[in-house]
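So, could you explain this one?
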Amino acid sequence: MSEPTGQADALADLAARAVVDALALPEGAHEQAAATLLVDLDAGTVVFANLLATQLAPDVRLPAPLAEWSRAAGLRTQDGLGLDEGLRTLATIAREAPSRGIQVSAERATGDSALREALWVVGVPLAGAPAPLAHQALVVLLPLRSRTAAAAMPDLGTDVHARAAVASSVSFTITDPTQPGDPIVWVNPAFERVTGYRAEDVIGTNCRFLQGPDTDREVVARIRAALEARTTVADTLLNYRADGTPFWNQVVISPVLDADGHVTHHVGIQADVTERVQALLAREAALDEARVSSRRLHLLAEVSQTLAEHLDYTDAVRALAQVAVPRLASWGFVAVVDERGRFDGLHIVAADPVDAIDAAELERADLGWLTRSPRIAHALASPAGHVPVASPVDVASLAARTTPRQLALLHRLGLGSALVVPLRARDGVLGVLVLVVRDRHDLLQENVITAAHLGHRAGVGLDNVRLYQREREAAVTLQRSLLPELPEIPGLDVAAAYVPALDRAQVGGDWFDVLPLPDGAVGLAVGDVVGHDLHAAASMGQLRSVLRSYAWSGQDAGTVVARLDELVQGLGMADIATCVYLRLEGSTLRYTRAGHPPPFVRTADGVVRELDGALTTPVGVPVPGRPVVEAAVDLPPGAVLVVYTDGLLERRSRPLRRGIAELRATLEAMPDGMDARGICDHLVATLAGGEHEDDVCVLVVRRDAEPD
């Protein structure tokens, strides 16, 4: 088979798809590549076949009779007859008979169609074109991947001629590049209808008369460069009709070569695709809007999540700046004020890491440049409903309200446009989010809208963090005020720790006590009232006071706990509480546990013992004939006693029993020679490090070693 000619390439390879589109074929037919033949109507021969057509009849050498090509391709109609055997042959189809084409199948597959796949074959004569094109036609064989599309083909009817369909939407032009200016030498009627220009008015002129003020010059340059390089070009550009109305023109221009390889003509196919382009632009605009909305919602959600994860107000301010500023501006900051309107927090962030050093230095500088900013003052005093507006930075006034170093840093960070967004909380404005871009025209409107939404969302979030921190500080202060100061006791090294739960602002019911008794013994207690509220804290204070009173009387540990339980039940002082009371008399340690986890003793030689005896029901639990229980162990010199509440050990992921085992292992592995404070801190860091879900109370008593 002969090599494709430039003329065939121009009219078949690229023009075929535009022509097929123009025939208004059903949905499902347009997305497939077409096998295309260029046919000499006078000789009844195929003079060119594109690659897909070559795959259908690989053994045919061109030029070849139409009937021979049809037999070689094994073309059959729907009734199973060979296409060359009936009245409708490739020759008749090439002359538009039938005008809408027919359905066939081929013996072989191509790179875009399967074996015996339904193909729609249609002919497009090029009558009226200059010689030799006027005596030629395109025959297009299009795969019908959709059964619906194949079934719909015969229903299109034959009353509308293919030529009329082509004329209604696809225009052809032929220009002569051998003449100065590559003038038009022929146009078809569709060109007149699409552009509004008459043939007699445009013959002899260049097609550039279709260009207008909004025609993309880069597209024009690409087309011109392709023609100069003698290559086919396809593009879409905005053209103008004779009456000045714009339309989107899908253009395919290809060179036609003679036998010596010289360009003799340019064949152009133009299709008015205005509706398609406008639909595409509308779809892209809708997608852009959806993307903007999605990015905005994602940023707002991320800010909310970030603020919710920070319980420290200063950390929350920094996190807000780090999340928001790089997404919206070149650089910027979050500045917050206290109840008196004084700035007490600032974090500056630069989108470019190169500017991070300058941002950090400006953040550390005196805050006078903020307090003297009129725009920031206006935002802090703005009422509800205030709409922030981006505007150029007043560079001229900066020198009067900044130091020379601050001014230099501001210039290095970049001063173009700025947006000052109030961070509005429930009762007013608690700070500002300031976004700055180096180019005053570069602050996108979508970013302005996003920042306005962010101002309220972040303001409420920061307010929540601030309120939580204040409540938690107040709660911890109250809790600690209810706990005793550790006394100095000769021969004992004592340390205690109370760590409130990280996920609550309420006070709790955990307590410890160390009480030197009149008889020389030392009373030790650790307890936990059920609940995490003021009621639990009040109950804890009462229980500690009552236990102190009974302990002061010098009674044994079991009796102290039993009388405590009687009073609690009699007066309804608390719901339920666990506690352990221990009485240290020299080296003897007597204890009673009211539903409390077991204390541990670690001797000087590293032996760890669990004090799991003397267990009775929790305080406040009615038990008829409640027994008085007590156990005793030896606490030799150098030994360590560890008493704790379950918050040290228990987690959702770690049951209390497993926590007790881990405490034992931690004590066994603990280095020798640590004092009580070191032991206490080590246990809290090892077993309650990170986020703990309950209050933690630990009491460590270490007997001094006897001197050598």
User: Anything to note?
Assistant: The chain has four domains: 6-160, 170-272, 295-472, 482-703. The longest strand covers residues 246-257.
